[in-house]
Amino acid sequence: MANVEVIKKFWNSFKMKFGITHDDYQAWAFGDTPEMANQLADLIVKGIKTATTSAYDLYEKDEPLPQVGEYNIILDGSSAPVAIIKTVVVEIVPFNEVTWEHAYHEGEGTRSPTGAVFTNPFSNRNMQKPVWNFITLGNVQDKRVAMSI
Q1: Rounded to the nearest 5°, which phi and psi values hold at 20?
Q2: Residue of 146, 147, 126, 135 lying closest to 26 (CA atoms)
Q3: How confident is the model at residue 111 (pLDDT cuts 50, 70, 90)?
Q4: CATH number for the domain harbouring residue 101
Q5: Residue 147 covered by a domain
Q6: pLDDT per residue over 56-73, tens digit each?
Q7: Where are the bilayer-spanning segments (predicted)?
């Protein structure tokens, strides 16, 4: 786990910069390896990855789904905070109904409508109904607040 004090300092800097008064956030890394965490965090910081997914079927019965307005601190592969994202839309969509627009905002692959195929990131777990989270980005290091759908 990342250094809690470093994460708190990162959050407090963001709060001051954007006038946020609460301390409701979660800190986590994308992917399941440090390399993937670095790659996806880099796409977030560059403003390329502006949407993400989580597998609906993996949520426990009483576990809350992502909620509009939530803040998340994105960690890199060494568990250092690199960005803060805010959930602005949550949709539950079967995998076969994922739009090209959402696949594009995931920020991975070629991002070309003729050459890109959005593959199910949960196929190894037989997930067919992911929760699609659309996010805006706020990076403490540069006042960028990237798109929303």
Answers
A1: -90, 140
A2: 135
A3: low
A4: 3.10.400.10
A5: no
A6: 777 788 988 888 889 999
A7: none
Per-residue model confidence (pLDDT) at position 41: 92
Q: Which domain holds residue 71?
A: 4-138
User: Residue 120 contacts by C-beta under 8 Å, 6 or more apart in sequence?
Assistant: 95, 127, 128, 130
Asked if 129 contacts 94 with a C-beta cutoff of 8 angstroms, the reply is yes
Answering whether pTM is above 0.90, one says no
In the chain, where does DSSP find H-type helix? 4-18, 34-45, 100-106
Tokens of 86: 């805010």
Q: Buried b vs exposed e over 46-68: b needs ≥16 C-beta within 10 Å?
A: ebbbbbbbbbbeeeeeeeeebee
- Over residues 86-99, the pLDDT tens digits come to 888 888 777 667 77
Number of domains into which the chain is organized: 1
Residue in 32, 44, 41 with CA at minimum distance from that of residue 105: 44
